[in-house]
């Protein structure tokens, strides 16, 4: 594949659904990386050594993601990521969404939730929550595990997550809060941060509203990378699984963001399930 002007293309395959990702000016075919951690499954000691070499693990050891495996609840656990890494040495891997409160309340048992084998690098930790103090504490506690990026979930439509206005996609309705949360997360780590979101929520689904969300979060926080699931979320009447297929895809929103925010990086997610469909995105 060749590098395209303005953005690059990445794909992730999952057992149930696949996700194609694009990002502004990012290319990672032929990644080579070096792990400074010795291979010790569920060990934090060696990963503490790697932390001492930061900041800059991403810049020093990996090229930015061209090919990624998206975060998927009940799928992208440690075992699935191990399998994916055997299939691809270059894909960026995402964890399942982990609630910040879980990390904070389980701080004496963090290996159960955060540890992974070092060969899973490059790997992104996705966290969720609506309490800024806990988001910051969770990020700080996760530092010892040497994740290569921290991602905030602003896209999950599950009633358990978003249906009561807690977090997930409901956060898109409060971009100033997301900016404050991302500032706290970024201040608690020395790796890049990013936001995963939808293109809208319920009736708040205009392109202008999406632009307002992106503008406020990017201008009021250090966030420069957004993963865009190109469907809106419907919080009532359909299941989380149906939210991955029923709301129509609007890829034109994503391409509009590329045009209107040339200084930011964007990753497109949703709806592309075959390699030939990936090629069509060129």
TrEMBL record:
<dbReference type="GO" id="GO:0017150">
    <property type="term" value="F:tRNA dihydrouridine synthase activity"/>
</dbReference>
<dbReference type="InterPro" id="IPR004653">
    <property type="entry name" value="DusA"/>
</dbReference>
<dbReference type="Pfam" id="PF01207">
    <property type="entry name" value="Dus"/>
</dbReference>
<protein>
    <recommendedName>
        <fullName>DUS-like FMN-binding domain-containing protein</fullName>
    </recommendedName>
</protein>
<dbReference type="InterPro" id="IPR013785">
    <property type="entry name" value="Aldolase_TIM"/>
</dbReference>
<feature type="domain" description="DUS-like FMN-binding">
    <location>
        <begin position="69"/>
        <end position="281"/>
    </location>
</feature>
<dbReference type="InterPro" id="IPR035587">
    <property type="entry name" value="DUS-like_FMN-bd"/>
</dbReference>
<dbReference type="GO" id="GO:0000049">
    <property type="term" value="F:tRNA binding"/>
</dbReference>
<keyword id="KW-0521">NADP</keyword>
<keyword id="KW-0820">tRNA-binding</keyword>
<keyword id="KW-0694">RNA-binding</keyword>
């Amino acid at each position: 594949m060749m590098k395209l002007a303005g953005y690059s293309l990445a794909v992730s395959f999952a057992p149930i659904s696949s996700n194609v990702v694009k990002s502004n000016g990012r290319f990672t075919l032929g990644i080579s990386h070096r792990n400074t951690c010795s291979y010790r499954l569920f060990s934090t000691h060696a990963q503490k050594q790697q932390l001492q070499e930061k900041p800059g693990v991403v810049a020093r050891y990996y090229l930015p993601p061209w090919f990624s495996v998206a975060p998927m609840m009940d799928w992208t656990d440690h075992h699935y990521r191990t399998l994916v890494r055997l299939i691809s040495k270059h894909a960026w891997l995402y964890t399942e969404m982990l609630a910040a409160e879980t990390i904070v309340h389980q701080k004496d048992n963090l290996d159960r939730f955060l540890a992974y084998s070092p060969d899973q690098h490059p790997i992104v930790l996705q966290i969720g929550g609506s309490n800024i103090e806990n988001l910051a504490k969770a990020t700080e506690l996760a530092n010892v595990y040497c994740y290569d990026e921290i991602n905030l979930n602003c896209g999950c439509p599950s009633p358990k997550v978003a249906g009561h206005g807690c977090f997930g996609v409901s956060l898109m309705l409060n971009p100033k809060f997301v900016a404050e949360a991302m500032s706290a997360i970024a201040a608690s780590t020395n790796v890049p941060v990013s936001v995963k979101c939808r293109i809208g929520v319920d009736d708040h689904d205009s392109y202008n509203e999406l632009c307002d969300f992106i503008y406020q979060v990017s201008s009021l926080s250090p966030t420069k990378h957004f993963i865009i699931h190109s469907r809106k979320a419907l919080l009532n009447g359909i299941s989380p699984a149906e939210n991955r297929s029923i709301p129509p895809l609007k890829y034109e929103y994503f391409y509009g963001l590329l045009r209107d925010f040339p200084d930011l990086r964007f990753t497109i997610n949703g709806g592309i399930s075959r390699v030939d469909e990936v090629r069509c995105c060129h």
